[in-house]
Amino acid sequence: MTILMLFLYLAITATLLTVFMYYFSGSVKSAYTSFLQNFCGSLFVFSGFVKAVDPMGTAIKMQEYFEEFETTAKGSFLHFIADLFPVLAKYSMGFSVGMIVLEIVIGILLIIGHLPRWTSFLFFIIMVFFTILTGFTFLTAYVPKEANFFEFSKWTVFSESNMRVTNCGCFGDFLKLTPETSFKKDIFLMLPSVLFLLIWRKFHTLFSISLRNAITLFSIVGLSLFCLANYK
After folding, report:
1. What 3-state DSSP class applies to 83?
2. Taking the chain, what is the end-to-end CA distance rounded to the nearest angstrom?
3. d(C-alpha 184, C-alpha 180), whole Å
């Protein structure tokens, strides 16, 4: 499985969902908007679920990031926040479950069209966060081991051996992407995230508002228990 094949399968799924909604639910206001909702929503549900089956893997990955952020902060103008990261690392499991649940719930919200304005904002924020993480991972390949990330004058040619974190863990163990591919993926997904901020009024909405609220609440509780059960 490659990221392109995964995107193809998700695009087919999103197309089928959009066609079904258009002809049988009458909820589609804009076909391309609904397609993007279904595509991005399906991607988030899938990527979150493959991490939910092993939340400890994501927790370990977050610990790696916290350790690298601490080292980077200590040798830069951000030294005053360096001591924060070891504290955060102690709660990596909690952050892991919270991030996984949030990712899947955002995907579900996109697909059902619940709270479109807030959902589009959350999708944008989490994509900015993911892009910063994968961008940092990719760009460290230009930073020699003895140099700090913010010492731009010491950056050199691209070398994978310089990377501080070699895999972002975007799809858990299901699909391992190179940092460059992960970064490009997130740059690509930033496009619909910005677009959603502008066109959220064209989102389709499925079901009644009370049922959408129930789906959202059930998803949060159910997914949290699912992650914790898998961790145990």
Report:
1. coil
2. 29
3. 6
Q: What is the H or E stretch that residue 117 is in?
A: helix 116-139
pTM, 2 dp: 0.93
pLDDT, tens digit (0-9, with 9 covering 90-100), for 158-194: 888 888 877 777 777 788 888 888 999 999 999 999 9
Cα separation values, 152 from 134, 139, 148, 224, Å: 18, 11, 8, 41
DSSP letters for 129-169: HHHHHHHHHHHGGGS-TTS-TT-GGG--S--GGG-SSS---
66, 92 Cβ separation under 8 angstroms: yes
- Please state, in angstroms and as integers, the Cα–Cα distance from residue 37 to each residue in 65, 99, 182, following that order: 30, 20, 21
The whole-angstrom separation of Cα 188 and Cα 190 is 5
Q: 82 in helix, strand or coil?
A: coil
Sequence-distant (6+) residues with CB within 8 A of 95 are 59, 62, 88
Cα 160 from Cα 139, distance rounded (Å): 10
Tokens encoding 19: 């066609």
How many Cβ atoms sit within 10 Å of the Cβ of residue 227?
Answer: 25
**pLDDT tens figures, 104-138:** 999 999 999 999 999 999 999 999 999 998 999 89
